[in-house]
Amino acid sequence: MRKVAIVGAGMTKFVRRALETPKELSYEAAKITLDSCGLTLEDVECIAHGTAPDAFDGLHQNGEYMVDGCGGWNKPTMRVYVGGGTGIHAVVHGWHHVASGLFDTCLVVCEEKMSSALPHAQAFFLTIFDSITERPLEPNLLWIFALEMNRYMERYGYTKEDMALVAVKNKLNGLKHPASQFTEEVTVEDVVNSEMMAYPVSRLDVSPVSDGAAALLLVSERVARRLTDKPVWIEGVGWSLDTAYWATRDLYYPRYTDTAARMAYEMAGIREPDKEIHIAEPYDPFGYKALHHMEGLQLSPRGKTVQLLHDGHFDIDGNLPMCPSGGLLGVGNPIAAAGTMKVCELFWQLRGEADGRQVPGNPRLGVAQSWGDLMQVSSVVVTGI
Amino acid sequence: MDKKVAIVGIGYSGFGSTTPDLSYREMIFEAATKCYQDAGGIHPQSIDSFVASSEDFMEGISIADEYVPDQLGAVLKPVHSITGDSLQGLASAMMQIKTGQQSIVAASAFSKVSNLSNHDGLVTYATDPFYIRPFNENPYFIAGLEMNRYLHETGTTREQCAKVVTKNRSNALNNPSALYGARIELEDVTEAPVLSYPLGIYDMSGHLDGSIVVLLASEERARELTDKPIWIKGIGWATDTPNLDSRIDGMGSAVYARLAAQKAYRMAGINNPFNEIDFAEIDDTFSYKELQHLEALNLCGPGEAGKLLELGCFAPDGDFPVNVSGGSLGGGYLHEANGLQRLMETVLQLRGEAGKRQLHDVETGLAFAWRGIPTATGAAVILSTRP
Amino acid sequence: MEDKIKVAGGTGLSAQDISSGKIFLTEDSLDCTYAWDTGVAVNRYLEELKKGKIIATRCRKCKRIMLPPRLFCELCFIPCPDWQYVQDSGIVNTYSICYVHWDASRIGKDEKPHLPAVIEIDGAAPGMGIMHILGEVEPQEIKIGMRVKAVWKPEAERSGSITDIKYFKPC
Amino acid sequence: MAIMERNSRNIDNRYWNPGFKAFPVKNVYTAGAAGQRFFEEIKNNSKILGSRCEKCELTYVPARIYCERCFNRLEEKNWIDVGTEGTIYSYTLLFQTQNGEPRENPAVMVAVRIADGLLIHRLGEFSAADLEIDKPVKAKFKPKEKRKGCIEDIDYFKPIK
Fold first, then answer.
1. How far apart, in whole angstroms, are the C-alpha atoms of residue A106 and residue A95?
2. What pLDDT, in 10s, does the model give residues A71-121?
């Protein structure tokens, strides 16, 4: 299999409301990515870009609209989407472009502008449910999270305080991220006592509404060797989509993450992920999801994750640092861009360039995962040096 | 890099201006079943990965890719969606096989445009919210501007455009799955009400519901699955600027088509497409687009397409048959599945399964699709009976 | 070090920037409505709901009784023409107590919270749930594993919709 | 056959119309970093700005913050006044309304070439003879007090006699 490396990464600040249009946000992230590795648009052969639902940006065929900002003028461009999983899936998609041998360089750009949604981005999630058998019940996105979280907690006897700890730790990490939209620490009490949205989900269990973009440059081995002595290799990719009849699955375990992770590990030749992987960036739009995904990623035994969390196992200086970037809870959640941000983080961490949030001990293998749709899809990327 | 990829199965369902007999899921299930049967009765459990091409607002669902897996038999499998033409989806499927991670990949697309009250409203929603939408005009004025500029730049006439309509609608009469076949005169087109001068109402293709699923395989698996593999010799896709305000090179010509074709020809080792390709299925969403695309695809020089058309060059019995199926003007426009519709006809012709409209001695064909206004994205694929 | 620069753009606007009118904005909404073909399986499902019954389909191969009904088994990938009624009772698989409406607006002081749940329907294959809402129950009394039964709208008010079941209540 | 049953009587054919808009929501769009500046200039000074990429020798109208061809950042110094006159690059007469209703008097839409950009707008104060590609036209602005910072601050383009 053709080797593919990441040689550049960049992103915009994640903000509650951005002045920039979706195109302009994409441009900022794409441009800084090219600048970071000393390349120009001429060096880019193709574009793999992503955004989640078109309804946020409020544009039909949003992939077409934003493409010049992604650097797609007169180039092959292709937008991929798997809902919330898009940010990391776009990296898999970019990997396809280069690993297939069709291209030597591929710019991956993901963007989301959620602030344009009125009355609130959440209202748009009504339209992700089955048009006929579910939408008449007027569901909102919180329902499915709350239903899944409740099932997960009940299964293992986890408490709301346990789940709150994820938000506390991730937000603390995020304070050191230059793109973060947050400035304040929170405590477990703050999270548990924050406004109840949909039991068991409280306001601070939820990642915010954000605008932003993130980008990566993927290249073939030949190009990578020429450009840098610190390439970060894409060692494994995997993705999986479970049935759309979501209520017919038991929600306590993310089997879609399980299958996606196993696919990526097989490609990467990883047999014992919990021992071999040094950094994990599981998708954390809600606190419990990070833990749920750690189990699906085979990085933590089912039902034992909370104990490990309390023990500091997932801290930046722990055995398996989790979300050193701060994740969606700590940096922000412009949906597709947030996923790509996680791979950017692996890139910086593995190169030892993560500044104040650098994971100690020269980490060499990392995994990033994103999740989306109707609690249904996972995309997994394993990177190494 | 030289891993070869073939189309080993194809199936379709629907193909009506309305399709109330089945839901979109049932329609796709039917197309998938036919496709898998066409590939020797393969069970989807043996398929490695799945790609769908769709747009949220076409389905009235946000994150429409949620609903992809079940009707393709893809539960807990690698599945993703491309918001692009289905030929871009095909390219994604092909790239996956070329990476070596997958051997058999399905690509699907469908249209249930009859379920939309106002497709024009959707097209408006694809335009820039600050620079275009405030005019509150019918979005097809963009096609009017393009057509007028194309005629101006090339000297192509309005009548030549109308001739595309009569040709394709007449071709469609020989295609049982084409919905808009008709025997009409040039005047029926030129004297019809104008939508956006010079574009008349019959210069536009009609809407179509339907679903198409194709199966791709690596060379090794293709040989096991079918004795009639159709090989993907070249593929290319490209986007010109999406901004109408910077299309100084592209308003009158199809830059995206030129770039997509260049890539596909290079991959297929084609230097002289007119001589080396036997026939083509080319996007004709609007009448002028067929001519403009022929020129951009380097099948003739700028401004020559209209004249060659009048000489009968692109007729089913001409030197270079174009849209023998009836194209979109004769068959109906399948939206995101447009590219797979063009591909399907190319595959059927190459297999010799095109019935009454079968072309003789064809071994290489070209399918090209465009994403419609206001976009500037197109994809080209070259298929051959020879690996 | 030049490679330290990794973040650019993302100019934050405050609520005040917006309300002051200094920032140019435009609003729009999609001018299109949808009428989705229900198809065979969902059509029958809705017709039966109108009669006060829940109908499923059965896969002859894996024997699953599937809800909502579908014409095909997505796992065996074969047509499933066998229809079968299931009960209108079941078990709460999971639930939530939701204090916001679908549009993220907070519920009013006098309003009761929404009580969405996944209910495993009796007679369907194990684990086959549907999403619905609970009623006639105090939120704190809801338990995972609780038995519930459908409360139907009066026959005259039913329209062939999932909302023909008003809610599920403990039984 | 793949499907064992189909809806085969009209009376069985049913569609689900939710009775309200499928997307009962709306979007608010910012003009963006470039648009904010571009429209401020139109609104306050009746000026149309372009931005010039020296490398590509191209002047974008409307102005933007980046060159889409080479990705150069188009800074303040690259923003220039391109005047309010241009030529018709293409035009069309639109005989249907937004919702596809026929109409007697067509709207005339033009792509006006100014520098290397094409401003899409309406044509006004014209006669049939003015409808020709390459004819010079100029912007007619709305009265200042009616301008809001949008493309309609220009009422229309009209032929230069």
1. 8
2. 999 999 999 999 999 999 999 999 999 999 999 999 999 999 999 988 788
Give me the residues paired with residue C84 across strands: C56
A248 in C contact zone (CB under 8 Å): yes
Mean pLDDT of A31-43: 96
Within a domain: B294 = no
- Give the model confidence (pLDDT) of A280-335 as tens digits: 999 999 999 999 999 999 999 999 999 999 999 999 999 999 999 999 999 999 99
Host domain of residue B11: 5-117+207-225
Q: Tell me the residue range of the domain where A281 lies.
A: 4-118+208-384
Report ipTM for this prediction. 0.96
Map out the domains of chain C as residue ranges. 39-170
Say which CATH number the domain at B65 has: 3.40.47.10
Q: Check D117 against B246: CB less than 8 A apart.
A: yes
Number of domains chain B is built from: 1
B122 touches chain A (CB under 8 A): yes
Tens of pLDDT along D55-113? 999 999 999 999 999 999 999 999 999 999 999 999 999 999 988 889 989 999 999 99
Q: Judge whether B43 lies within some domain.
A: yes
Among chain D residues, the shortest Cα distance to A21 is held by: D32
Measured distance CA(C41)–CA(C33) in Å, rounded: 23
- Give the 3-state secondary structure of residue A5: strand
CA distances from B224 to B104, B233, C154 (A): 11, 19, 59
Q: Confirm whether A292 is domain-assigned.
A: yes
Chain A residue with CA closest to C66: the answer is: A248
In a domain, B75, yes or no: yes
Q: What is the pLDDT of residue D21?
A: 62
Give A25's contacts in chain C (Cβ within 8 Å): 9-10
Query: What is the maximal distance between C-alpha atoms in chain C?
Result: 75
Find, in chain A, the residue whose alpha carbon is nearest to that of C120: A248
User: Which residues of B fall within a CB distance of 8 Å from A50?
Assistant: none
Please tell me the predicted confidence (pLDDT) of residue D22: 65
Helix/strand number for chain A, H first, E second: 14, 12
